[in-house]
Amino acid sequence: MNFTILGQGTGLPEYSMAQDIVVEYAKKVSCHTDEQRRLLPALYRMTGVKRRHSVLLEAPEDQESRQSFFPYPDNGNDLGPGIGQRMEKYEKCALVLAEQAAREALSQSELAPDDITHLVTVSCSGFYAPGVDVGLIQELGLRRTVQRTHVGFMGCHGALNGLRVARGFTHGDPNARVLLCAVELCSLHYHYGWEPEQIVANALFADGAAAIVGSGEPVADRWRVVGTGSCLMPDSQDAMTWRIRDHGFVMSLSPHVPDLICTHLRGWMEEWLAGYGMTLPEIRSWAIHPGGPRIIQSAAKALDLDKDVTEDSREILKTHGNMSSPTILFILKKMRERNAPLPLVAMAFGPGLMVEAVLIV
């Protein structure tokens, strides 16, 4: 039995910031020299991001004094808030976005909260316990006996791992009704100072939540997840990392990631699809997680995809930034609303270097 998508929802912080305004803020927290201040705008433009939402923004853009991520540094040695202060903000704000996304998905599914038998939560940008899963049980009025699973610290492909878990539940139990919710507050890990890899992360990441409600019953005109796959690319363990440090989580991204994708993605994808009796030319739509423009370009090059095939991924990156795990669900929601042709493959890349994929028909 497969996983039928009955409803989808998204949640965003109230306020957002245009990327050109973010650059002016970033000059004050990241740059120490005039050369760095001249270079910074180009680095931000290269991301393809035009606007991002953040729980740290407390007012509209016309109230400039309240439009910043963290306070400006006191001196060159100021590394910003400690991890404790950042996690306090996560605990305060993550559930709000998760609940917003989950309520929309439930409403669209036409299921009642107490119809849900399994709850899958996904997050890599914060921790506390009892966590978002318990909060959703209380705020949504889910059953006290709902079965919980948390997919944690898996990065940008976490929601696809969550879909694999959801499909496993509906495959094993024909009466299962699953709520999947991914929430990330990546802006909490905004870094001070001039470190190129962290500059890129500062320029890309944003906050958001996305949810899916589904069951194992086939429903006419509803998308079904019929397959999932994973592949650890050879010699790639240091290509993408995500570690906890005293002043936030620190991501590293090797310049070799695009080459790894170009070299290894196609062969694995062909083998994986063959297991479902399909070939690359038979896939009519592609949802590619926009880890950045070069990630999309590399995946498209490896699979010989036209640029317009990746337009939905580029548009979400442009208007929302990289929200880590919820991002691929934002893309799927956009594609589902426009009735993108099926079959469809969604994929995302994360620390490892791992590629995760799902097949939707």
Alpha-beta content class: alpha+beta
Helix percent band: 25-40%
Shape: globular
CATH class of the domain at 224-360: Alpha Beta
Task: Briefly say what this structure is.
This protein has 361 residues and is α+β, with helices and mostly antiparallel strands. 37% of the residues lie in helices and 23% in strands.
How would you characterize the overall build of this protein?
This protein is of the alpha+beta class and 361 residues long. The chain has a domain at 224-360: Peroxisomal Thiolase, Chain A, domain 1 (3-Layer(aba) Sandwich), CATH 3.40.47. Helix content is 37%, strand content 23%. It contains ten helices and 13 strands. It has helices spanning 19-30, 34-45, 83-109, 132-140, 158-172, 196-204, 257-274, 293-303, 311-320, 327-337; strands at 3-11, 16-18, 51-53, 118-123, 147-152, 177-185, 207-215, 224-232, 240-245, 248-253, 285-288, 344-350, 354-360. It has a nine-stranded mixed sheet with strand order 5-4-6-7-1-8-13-12-11. The protein has a two-stranded antiparallel ribbon with strand order 2-3. Strand 4 (118-123), helix 4 (132-140) and strand 5 form a beta-alpha-beta unit. The model has no long low-confidence stretch (mean pLDDT 94).
